[in-house]
C-alpha cells in the first residue's frame, strides 16, 4: 500500500519538474526536457499530457508553453503541498 503512495509521489515530483521546466524555459520540447531532466521521452510526454489536461500548459509547434492558469496554480502550490504533508503526518501511527 505504501509502495503505491511512494510511486505516486515520485510521479507527482516528475510532473512538477516538467511543469517548472516549461515555466522557466518556454517554449520547450520533449527531447530537450528529456535531456535536461533525465526522464525518458514517454515519461515527459505523459507529464505534459497531464499538465495540458489541467490547463497548465499548451502545446505549440515550438514546444510546451504556460497558460493563464499557470500563475494562480504556482501561487497556491506550496500551500497545497503543505496541506498534503500535514495530512500525511497526521497518519503517523507512532504518535
Describe it.
This protein is mainly α. It has a single domain (about 1-90), classed as Arc Repressor Mutant, subunit A (Orthogonal Bundle). Helix content is about 70%, strand content about 5%. The chain contains 4 helices and 2 strands. It has helices at about 1-25, 30-35, 40-55, 70-90, and strands spanning about 55-60, 65. The chain has a two-stranded antiparallel ribbon. The chain is globular and about 50 Å long. The relative contact order is 0.12. The mean pLDDT is about 95. InterPro entries: WH_DNA-bd_sf.
Relevant terms:
95 residues; mainly alpha; Arc Repressor Mutant, subunit A; 4 helices; WH_DNA-bd_sf
What is the secondary structure topology, with strand pairs?
Blueprint: H1 2-25, H2 30-37, H3 41-53, E1 57-58, E2 65-66, H4 70-90
Antiparallel strand pairs: 1-2
Helix pairs in contact: 1-3, 2-3
Short description:
With 95 residues, the chain is mainly α.
CATH homologous superfamily annotation: Winged helix-like DNA-binding domain superfamily/Winged helix DNA-binding domain
End-to-end Cα distance, whole Å, is: 20 Å
Q: Which residue ranges are poorly predicted, with pLDDT under 50 across at least 5 consecutive positions? A: none
Helical stretch tally:
4
Order of helices and strands: HHHEEH
Tally of DSSP β-strands:
2
Task: Give the structural class.
Answer: mainly alpha
Shape: globular
Number of domains: 1
The CATH top-level class label: Mainly Alpha
- Based on CA atoms alone, the radius of gyration comes out at 15 Å
Mean of residue pLDDT?
94
**Helical fraction:** 55-70%
The biggest sheet amounts to: 2 strands, antiparallel
The CATH architecture designation is Orthogonal Bundle
What would the CATH topology be? Arc Repressor Mutant, subunit A
Strand order of the largest sheet: 1-2
InterPro entries: WH_DNA-bd_sf
Amino acid at each position: 500500500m505504501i509502495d503505491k503512495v511512494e510511486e505516486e509521489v515520485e510521479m507527482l515530483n516528475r510532473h512538477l519538474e516538467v511543469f517548472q521546466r516549461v515555466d522557466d524555459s518556454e517554449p520547450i520540447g520533449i527531447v530537450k526536457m528529456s535531456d535536461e531532466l533525465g526522464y525518458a521521452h514517454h515519461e515527459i510526454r505523459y507529464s505534459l499530457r497531464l499538465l495540458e489536461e489541467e490547463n497548465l500548459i499548451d502545446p505549440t509547434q515550438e514546444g510546451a508553453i504556460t497558460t493563464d492558469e499557470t500563475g494562480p496554480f504556482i501561487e497556491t502550490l506550496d500551500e497545497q503541498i503543505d496541506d498534503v504533508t500535514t495530512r500525511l503526518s497526521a497518519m503517523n501511527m507512532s504518535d
